[in-house]
Specification:
A hairpin with a 2-residue loop joins strand 9 and strand 10. This protein has 452 residues and is of the alpha/beta class. The strands form three sheets. A seven-stranded mixed beta sheet has the order 6-5-4-3-2-1-20. The chain has two domains: 266 residues, Metallo-beta-lactamase, Chain A (4-Layer Sandwich); 163 residues, Metallo-hydrolase/oxidoreductase (Rossmann fold, 3-Layer(aba) Sandwich), CATH 3.40.50. 23% of the residues lie in helices and 20% in strands. The mean pLDDT is 94. The protein starts with a strand and ends in an 8-residue tail after the last strand. The protein is built from eleven helices and 20 strands.
Length: 452
């Protein structure tokens, strides 16, 4: 019988798209399943040119944008390839967090295969789906993970641990097989407001003495970004609001709940009200009731309001949120009392908002990957047209290069598998056997060697 192995079907020399298969005898489990940020996809699909809904797996396989794996895909996703369908031979999927590059392809997986997530991740996925009908994560048996409580799938045991990331409720995993353990970080950081969660996971991983560490390395290698903490973002925002006599504008990732909490607290201390898009308000409502992640409550918090966009038709989920919403005219009139959260896809609202020249615009998200980033180019055109002043303030959801090196030293695994990175070579000088994965190869868990 083949010894326990791990295969990397995505996330290899690319950002995002982790697809990690652990096999122990007949038992097979998968960690994460979403698209990568590989620019190769845009060589074939972009904007309205997308894989056909009748044959998505076939269309993605054609360009090697999704892996082939027997017993994984649903009959519907295999449209045009129905003869290749087999009964599920993957026995569970574990999702580390709610970002699309880790969960966006769940809809293609056979609905008989159970999907394990944290309770909070499930809430975020449900919120995403409710506010965006095009999102679909599939109709699986959803299973809730309990921190520190092992889940057994055949001979494999998985122990989930919460970690800190830019989307809440992210999870790292210890994976126990007959040939030793793996520690899989998922996406994580050590400088966020819940850094203690990451520390507890890494301590548990070190105590496990794992055979292998599967570590995300988004910021490994050259990284020109500033390494602000969430507290650092707050301090810079406080200074900006104190020096701003009128309206202030800000953008952030829509599921970065920590950032929204930071914006809300800064606005409140500055005597301002945070005005958020309806989707952000819906997400905040979805997360009410968690004492470990308190979020402002719409309708009860005087420093939180919803922005009413100019649109012809309201979705059903939007209507209850707009009873006391603020429109562009009111924002323009009351600008000095407000901090408006406005993402790039709502920039047409600036035509009605008419902000004063010199109004600050805080970009509270990662810098673009390159100077040619098309969204960055469009953003700068709008800022120049309305004479808005750009300020960059962001705390990354990922560990810096030095932090990643420290993690490798702390865990001290026998083998290190860098994923979710364009620069796996950055891990070559660290402790343990350096195992930069090759897509599709099987690696023995006990040794880290490729199985021939």
């Amino acid at each position: 019988m083949r010894p326990p192995t791990v295969r990397f079907l995505g996330g290899v020399r690319e950002i995002g798209g982790n697809k990690i298969l652990v096999e122990d005898g007949p038992d097979r489990i998968l960690f994460d399943f979403g698209p990568s940020f590989d620019p190769r996809r845009e060589e074939y699909y972009f904007d309205f040119l997308q894989p056909r809904s009748t044959s998505p797996v076939k269309d993605l396989l054609e360009f090697d944008l999704i892996p082939w794996l027997d017993g994984l895909y649903s009959p519907e996703a295999l449209g045009g390839m129905e003869e290749r369908y087999t009964e599920p031979s993957v026995h569970a999927v574990f999702v580390s967090h709610a970002h699309a590059d880790h969960a966006g392809y769940l809809r293609y997986i056979d609905p008989a295969i159970p999907v394990y997530t944290s309770a909070g991740t499930r809430k975020i996925l449900e919120s995403n789906r409710a506010t965006n009908p095009s999102l679909n994560y599939g109709d699986h048996p959803w299973k809730t993970l309990s921190p520190g409580s092992a889940v057994r799938v055949g001979s494999i045991e998985v122990v989930p641990y919460p970690v800190d990331h830019s989307v809440p409720y992210a999870t790292g995993f210890l994976v126990r097989t007959g040939a030793g353990s793996l520690a899989y970080t998922g996406d994580f950081r050590r400088h966020g407001p819940r850094a203690a969660l990451t520390t507890r996971f890494l301590s548990a991983a070190a105590a496990e003495r794992p055979a292998g560490l599967i570590i995300e390395g988004t910021r490994a290698g050259p990284d020109p970004r500033r390494s602000l903490s969430e507290e650092g973002v707050r301090k810079e925002l406080d200074r900006l609001l104190a020096a701003t006599p009128g309206l202030a504008l800000v953008s952030c990732y829509p599921r970065d709940v920590d950032r929204i909490r930071t914006l809300h607290a800064a606005a409140q201390d500055a005597g301002r009200t945070l005005v958020v898009p309806a989707k952000a308000a819906f997400l905040l409502q979805s997360l009410q009731g968690d004492d470990e992640l308190p979020v402002p409550r719409l309708g009860q918090d005087p420093y939180l309001r919803v922005y009413r966009r100019s649109k012809k038709r309201l979705f059903k989920w939007e209507q209850p949120l707009l009873d006391e919403a603020i429109d562009a005219e009111e924002v323009h009139r009351r600008g000095k009392e407000l901090l408006l959260l406005l993402d790039l896809f709502q920039f047409a609202e600036l035509n009605d908002l008419r902000p004063e020249p010199g109004t600050p615009f805080v970009r509270s998200m990662s810098e673009p990957f390159s100077e040619e980033d098309v969204n960055d180019h469009v953003l700068r055109n709008w800022l120049e047209h309305f004479d808005l002043r750009l300020h960059q303030m962001h705390a990354s959801g990922h560990c810096s290069g030095p932090e990643l090196a420290e993690v490798c030293r702390e865990v001290n695994a026998r083998a290190v598998f860098p994923v979710h990175t364009e620069h796996p070579e950055a891990f070559a000088s660290g402790p343990g056997r350096f195992c930069p994965p090759t897509k599709g190869d099987r690696y023995r868990i006990e040794t880290g060697e490729v199985e021939r």
